[in-house]
Design goal:
- This protein has 4 helices and 6 strands, in the order αββαβαβαββ.
- The protein folds into 2 domains: 90 residues, 2-Layer Sandwich (GMP Synthetase, Chain A, domain 3); 62 residues, R3H-like domain (Ribosomal Protein S8, Chain: A, domain 1), CATH 3.30.1370.
- By secondary structure, it is an alpha+beta fold.
- It is elongated and about 55 Å long.
- The strands form 2 sheets. A 3-stranded mixed β-sheet has the order 1-2-3, covered by helices on one side. A 3-stranded antiparallel β-sheet has the order 4-6-5.
């Protein structure tokens, strides 16, 4: 279900970010776009509102794997009271970090798929966010000889790639792709 009033939501995000940037003493600019046109390589994500940051303090948003960027995004999502299944309607980005992470996850999915094919054993990714798990699921969706599944709870939820007809004898050993 789309955000009922995207302009009002974008204005709320703007008011929120103005306070965060000003009160936080951050040297950042941001642009809010409603219904942004996105390149084909971002078919996994169709946000209704895109917020892009730039400026001297951009690196602060991207430290620790973009932890602060994700936290500010989550606060905006909570402020708008979007249900969990609609979080992808809001997207915050900084210095194309999302595009770079998408490429990284797609490459990791390819490597994991090849390892599963070679070994016949499942491959378990390290815990990741629901958005990142979705990217890997989508990257491997057309692989007829494999299937993917999310396992675990909360912050420990991860994605496992299995050979199509795999019969588990037990929980797969964790392997991580650097």
């Amino acid at each position: 279900m789309p955000i009922p009033d995207k302009i009002a939501a974008a204005n709320k995000i703007n008011d929120f970010l103005r306070g965060v940037v000003t009160q936080g003493g951050l040297h950042l600019k941001y642009r809010i776009t409603v219904d942004p046109p996105l390149p084909d390589e971002r078919d996994w994500e169709r946000p209704e509102i895109l917020v892009e940051f730039a400026g001297p303090d951009s690196t602060l948003l991207l430290e620790r794997g973009g932890e602060l960027l994700r936290a500010v995004e989550l606060l905006a999502i909570e402020m708008l009271r979007l249900p969990g299944n609609e979080h992808e309607k809001i997207c915050f980005d900084c210095m194309n970090q999302r595009k770079l992470r998408l490429e990284e996850l797609r490459m990791a999915a390819t490597v994991a798929a090849e390892r599963v094919r070679q070994t016949g054993s499942p491959y378990e990714f390290a815990p990741m966010s629901s958005r990142e798990r979705r990217i890997v699921h989508l990257a491997l969706r057309d692989q007829a000889d494999l299937h993917t599944e999310s396992q675990g709870e909360g912050g420990r939820r991860c994605l496992v790639v299995y050979p199509k007809d795999y019969k588990p004898a037990g929980r797969p050993m964790r392997k991580t792709i650097p």
